[in-house]
Amino acid sequence: MQRAGVRVGVGTRFVLDGEAAEVVEVAANDHGVSVGLRIGAGRRLVILGLRELLDSGRARPIADCGDTSADERGEPASIILAELSEVQRARVLERAGHIREVLTGYRAGSVELAAAGEPRTGFDPCLPLTRRYEAKAAELGVGVRTIKQWVSLFRADGEAGLAPKPSMRRGVVGNSDERWVEIALEVMVEHVDQSRPSRTMVIARTNARVAARFGEGVVRVPSRATAFRVLEQLERRQPTFRLSTKRNRDIAARPAGVYGKLRPTRPGEYLLMDTTRLDVFAVDPVTLRWVQAELTVGMDWYTRCVVGIRVTPVSTKAVDAAATLYQAFRPRPAGKDWPAHAVWPEHGIPRSLLVDVEAIDGPMAGAASPAIVPETVVIDHGKIYVSEHLTSVCQRMGISIQPARLRTGRDKGPVERFFRTIREDLLQALPGYKGPDVHSRGLAPESEAFFYLDELEDIIREWVAVVYHHRPHEGLLDPYLPTLELSPAMMFEHGMARAGYIEVPRDPDLAYEFLRTHWRTIQHYGVEIAGRRYNGPGLDPYRNVTSGYGGAAHGRWPIQVDSDDITRVYFRDPDSRRWHTLEWEHAPSLQMPFSEDALVFARRLAKEKYTYPDDRIAVADLLERWSLGLGSSMQERRVALRLSREPADLEMTAAVPSAEVGDDDSDDELDLPGGDPGAGPIDEDDFYAEALEDV
Questions:
Q1: Please, are residues 93 and 175 in contact by the beta-carbon 8 Å criterion?
Q2: 273-282, 331-340, 441-450, 548-557, range with greatest mean pLDDT
Q3: pTM of the full predicted structure?
């Protein structure tokens, strides 16, 4: 058999730095073994250490003339034998036994493993090799030349040399012309950004392009059936026909090289933030209509703990993203009826690092998620994440921003997987679930919308705390304990043990940093924002005073506004650095937070109902409607929907001529308001026109 090594001695040849070299001397010295080499046509002499010659990568030995170079040899023996069937492998082993008997006289190839009766007559090692060839040829019924060929193959490659030579290896496209296959793949690649083509059209375009490029009849065109089989094989390389076009574009955008990713080493190192549209309808508490809901989350990459959750109607704003980021610093309080394992200490340190608080102070009323201080926020290129509001908040808090690559969801893989998990494990069990796409949607899922937006957020928050944080994740792995199943809560404790500490924000007024800034002048009556006037004693030193801020905000003062509660805004005294609360002039009539969207809606209702509406009338009218519609049971919600329809129904009745309505002339003198958002003719296909008619 051929040896994998080459004997190094006088006369051994090498290729050294691209030139032919021959060993002319081998000598031992204090530093090991050195060799003398004659190099090139000039036959110059060079002395090198043998280790340097073999390990530097500059030299490659040249095998003897009788040997086969590594490049000329076939597949390794393990690969050749692995391709054989059981029958073929048994036949090869049987033939190898015959060859060993010819060469050594024993089927096992060694006298120590001789079987009974070996060596047999005719195969004694003392006999000439030619006589043993003849004896084996007579035994197997083949020619002596065949036996000699088997022996030659066995000596060269062992048992693998006796394996049947495979016929011409077929590629993934069979015997089709490679030029036709390449053109077909080229046509499929061109449809990455286009609508899905049919296989017939791709075949027709390929045939036409092959004829135009190489000439008519030059390239053999496969039959229709063969062409379909070729496209089926090419589908694995360039998905075109089977998956959705969006998925095909994602696959085509995969990097050609080795995948890489950020590798977090401690909690808070990377915070993933993203927004998705939830696959479930919710009820807007203001309009009592079903709305699309969007979910914004912040996830710690190292632990997979979800540290920020916010559900918003229709679309998400920059202030919502900032509020989600704020929850990483100041987690929301846990629910009163949550199980003990779902509650975190308020500062986020795991229980294993604390004194037993419950044994000292009683049951712990903690946070819904751990508190971390993110070092880097990984975001996509959505407007809310690249907005001035969020970037200024991150700059103020010392947080780096790492944008993901365009249209590369794998850069935020864990949070994208979380969106799928919440859809499969939670949302599809809720009323109003509409499925991930239009092909999965039910007949009328919006008619089942039951939960208000805040209730939907509470459900998601509790599911994350009770289930998600305590379920093992395949993506969580300790390299030193690869078989240990870790949950996000366990990973947080593991990360705390590695990091050794956790940062906490030192500013007690941190929340104001995450609110949206409006630049306004301070008048004698206060400040005015979107037609609303705010005032408070904190403005007294600065009324009618020009601010010292420059640039686009020259002469104006920064006012922090929470769009979810416009009953008050916040002003920071530039001298004392204290925050002052400024109340809306109509805030005393409200006993609860009032959002900006609700005020816009109330103004529209009041404009339809009153000739000269103002904010006080609009808010009072909206609160009157809320007193009818904010029920908590299914029956109360049905009544709320029905009552919210009545003004529109009355307006329709008033629009009908008196002869059609009845003979009572008093209907003509009725002043019927049209304050409902659905005022006017009602579409019979609309959900709210037919909703809950059994009430």
A1: no
A2: 273-282
A3: 0.62
